[in-house]
Every structure is written in C-alpha cells, then in structure tokens.
Write a structure and sequence with these properties.
Number of strands: 13
Structural class: alpha/beta
Order of helices and strands: EEHEEEEHEHHHHHHEHEEHEHEHEHHHH
Strand content: 15-25%
Helix content: 40-55%
Oligomer: single chain
Number of helices: 16
Length: 464
Amino acid sequence: MAETFATTGTIAAIATAVVPQQGSVGIVRVSGEEAVEIAEYIFHAPGKQVIESHRILYGYIRHPQTQKLVDEALLLVMKAPRSYTREDVVEFHCHGGIMAVQQVLKLCLEQGARLAQPGEFTLRAFLNGRIDLSQAESISDLVGAKSPQAAQAALAGLQGKLADSIRHLRAKCLDIVAEIEARIDFEEDLPPLDDKAIVSELNKITAQITDLIATADKGELLRTGLKVAIVGRPNVGKSSLLNAWSRSDRAIVTDLPGTTRDVVESQLVVGGIPVQVLDTAGIRDTEDTVEKIGVERSRSAAQAADLVLFTIDATTGWTKEDELIYEQVKHRPLILAINKIDLLENSQNKSSQYQIEHIKSQIFTAAAKNQGIAELEAAILEQVQMGNIAASDMDLAVNQRQAAALIKAKTSLEQVQITIEQELPFDFWTIDLRGAINALGEITGEEVTESVLDRIFSKFCIGK
C-alpha cells in the first residue's frame, strides 16, 4: 500500500466530534490484533461482567500503572470478522467534551496502538473485503451530507446500488470477451460469432453507462450544494430577504443604505438541495473605505455564485444603477427579485409595470412581510431543472472520480464498435473491451492503484 496508509498494527482514534463543553458522549475506536488486549488492560468492569463480542459492558477506565481513574464509560467489543474493519474492534464510549476522550486515546496509544490515519478504519474495511470502493466513498458522502436527499443518495451507494449496477455491466463485458476469446482458441469447433448480437449488447451496456454518467451533475449538486448571491444596490431589501428566507435575523436591517458592509452567509435546504445564501453589500460608488471593500467582495461573490438573486426596489422600478449592476452579473444564471411590492399603491398591476423584458426569471417579494419566499424557492428549482439537474427523487448519483471511469469505459466500448465495423481481427476487439472492464473495475476497487486509494481516503476524517 501507499506509504501514507501503513495498514498494519493496531490503530486508535477519536470517532466522534470533539467540541468543548458540548456532546454528551465521545467514542474512542481501536482496531487491530491488540485491540481487545488493550481494552482488557485499561477497562475495569465491576461485578462478574465478562468481555464478550458484541456485548456492552459498564465500568471504569483506569491508568494501568497508577490505577488513577480516567473516566466512567461503556465498552463495546466486536471481534473479527463481525466488525466495521473485519478486525477486532473495541469502542470506549466516554463522556463527551475534550479531556475524557483525549485521555482515553492517550492511554490506548501508550499501550501500543498508533494514531489512525484519515480514513484508515474505512480503508481497512475495503482491503478486508467488507465493502467495495464505491461503498467507501458513500460513507464519506453520508458523513458530509448537507440535506436529507444527499444522505439518501449516499445510503443507496452504501447499500451497494451503484456497485451492483457496475458489477452487472462488468460481468456482461466479461461474457462478451469470453465469447470472443473462445472463437480465437476454438474457432473450428464453434459456430460463427454473431456480430450483430455483440453490437446490440454493446449498445445496451453503453446506454446504461450513459445513464449513470448523467447522474454526476446531480450528485455534485447534492454533495456541494448551490451558492446563491443576493445582489443589488443599497437599501433594496437584500438583508430583509435573507432574514425572511432563512427565518432568522442573520443580517442587520435598517433604512440606511450601506448597512451591510460584508458578505453574510446562511445555510438552507431548497427542494433537497443544500443552498449557501450570501447577502452582499449594496453595490454602488462610495468613498467610504470599509464600504468600498464590502462592495468589492459583493462583486466577487456574484462572480463565484452558481446563481445570482438580483434584487431591485419595486417602488422605484428599474433604475440606471440597476442597469449598471445587471451588466456585471448578466452572464451568470440569474433570478430577478422585485422586492417591496407591499409598498406599491396599485399592487394589482405590479406584474405588468415591473417586468424587465430581458430577464426571463422574475419573482415578486415583500421580504418585510415574509411574502414571496415560496415563489423564490420555486424559481430556484426551475433554474436547476433548466440545467438538466434533478433536484430531488434521486437515489443514485456517481461522483466525479466514478464519472471519469465511466466515461473511459464508454469510450472503450465505442471503440470496440468501430473495430467491429472495420472488420478487424477478434484480438483487436478484446483490447478495448478489457479497457472498459478495467475502467469499470476502478469504480468498485477491483482495479485500483495505491495513488487512487491515497487520494480517496485522505479526504476522510481521522476516526472513520
């Protein structure tokens, strides 16, 4: 294995988030040949409790030399192969916070365990055959899920939905190779190969691979979310819109223009998609040094956003200042929010009076009265759909690494068909077919290099 992952010996790590003065329980996880021995050495169970696999014991963790009490805890032992790593695993369920778990971890290290590398527990699960590589990546996605839909897609991957599809496609390719190679070795004893049947089967495999590739953008959206920047001139109600949308007072709201001096962030979920909303400073020419910095940050946020929520004041309509701002953001995906409609005298005619012809996606809001939020979210989902990215009801999504391998497999299968059309010898058919088989194997880990494993598991947290 790569030097980064020396997958020998007994490893230990804190498996839960460590937050000062927060968290009722902290878990220290140990995996390897010496895991149970370490537990027996530092854990003392009162009464006649016996350390057995898959049984929780109550007791105390003590320093083995000084017998000093370290923590009151629970001990869970999971002997191989019925454990996460398929090695002997023990978990100390300690009091939460910082000190207890750190002291228990220190004791484990003093007894011969070493600190686990990022993702090493899951790496061992993969190397020991408990999960495949796509399932390992799904574990990482599940830990980092930002919405219920993202978690659901990760769970589908963890349960093997992607792996099953990939293995099925790979098996079909192997069957075709077997048929072709049989003709190479025993051509005189077998009937002629049905070229049309082979091409038909390759088309079916390629179509299924294409469908899987199409889920990559969906998966990326669920994993990373959508960044939306609320942009506009000062005092059009951008901060009020953020507060109404997030149902909080994240941004300061006053009647004075230029109140927002920096980018204010809020995390939301819209239609299953994590959304990072950025309330930016009003864009205008100013001599105020601090406000000028805020304006520049607003422009940068708009350029980096996936979607711009361009906000204007319904009471003033489209102004020259709005036009100047629009010129800076018009190349970005954009929704026009016409705010403060509650202040219009003739609200019935607002839709005809304030439509901007060259901006197709427009909504009307009264942020101060929490009106128009549902329409705003519907407009965002419509923008997402226009980009052919499904926002919900998705139970399978490949990541960028998996998509790259699928594209490689698809290219190889298309080359096989070209080879068949050119009536080249069977040996040429198998070259690209094996290329497709290897590419599909990269997804599940049947064909994988140390550098790929290093890249994947280094992104995990240390205790996973």
